[in-house]
Amino acid sequence: MLGMLGLLAAVACMIFLAYRGLGALPLTLLCAGIVALTGGMGIWDAVSRLYMGGYAGVYKSYFLIFVFSAFYAKLMEESGSAAAIGYKLIDWFGSRHVMLVSILIVTALTYGGISLFVVIFAAAPILFLLFEQANLPRHLMLLVLMAGTGTTSMATLPGTPSLPNVVPTQYLGTTMMAAPVLSILCTATLFILCLMYARREERKARTRGEGYVPIPGARPASSGVMERSALPSAWVAFLPMGVLLLIIILGSHWVRDAAMLTVAAMLAASVLTYAFNLKTLGKLSLKHLLNKGLGDGIAAIGGLAAVVAFGAVVSASPAFQSLVQGLKGLNLHPYWKAVLACATVAGVTGSASASLRIVLDNMAGYFLASGVNLGILHRLSVMASATLSSLPHNSAMFLMLGHLGLTHRDAYRHALWVGVIIHSGVVTAATALTRLLGL
Q: What is the pTM of this model?
């Protein structure tokens, strides 16, 4: 009982201190200590062995995905490809639909291979420009980023190279294309609901007279984006992304290692982006592109590693093991067990990928022996992991808010609606539908 209370206290502490602006590393170290102390675990052993083992494990498993995704994002930004995609979407949908265009930009970049942890570096310059021109407040940018990274391109789009979509393949033998029909239905539903919320918040902001206010001390947004005449053509910007997705979709039939396939696809997209934009990128130092691009990936992975490290301490605690056994013992279908387990652990750790790793470490054998459709289980698990992971202590939240010059108090409510409330409703409906149809 004391251990369970300590676990709840640690999660509450993480949420409260995240709102107060404490970073992911000190936050997770402190809360790992709470779990260890109340769970009868040795604090030194919990930190030096469990915490550091989880921290290092993220670098071992996902380091290459992060750094090459960040390098690809840097090439997209410096070549003007990200801005070219933004302008083309404006041409298609009109300048009055800034929220729609912004969500599509972020979705295109993340579905096109840029990690949700580093997409902020590629998307921010064009988002600042669009919001300045539309005179919309910066807090709506978090809404856009959550709708573009934390929903469809993270969890439901078939073949998405997001980290949560990679993790189940390592346990269930599935591919990143798992349950394509269910994925498309959930994608459409999520997108429509998120867009409806975005338009409502835009109307409310304009009614209140809120407008664009730049980050104190920052340059005008227009100074950070190339003139449109200097940008590459839209097909040049979109083609490497298309090749990346094609490699993942076709390669998943022959390559079982999804992480390796994702890295190979990102490398191919990076080479194509550099080759197609040699006139622009050739003027820049390759050393600068490599140092800054790969460096952004190292900076981004640190927050995730800290959250996963906290999860490693949690998963070793007696209270958590009791929780897992309780979930496994529930008289529920395996789909519901997977959804409940992934959502619950995501709420504890604040990380979708960490929750999937922890749940599947403990329950993969049960799921494999259950005889259910593993593709559907894969998709529902990924969707569930993306719900409560959007609580305030989410590692990517710190990165996005910091880059946008915002605090949790300024904008977190949008993450709550998009990532937690809307997404939870869709995954619940999807799970109920699969059971109703007997899939």
A: 0.82
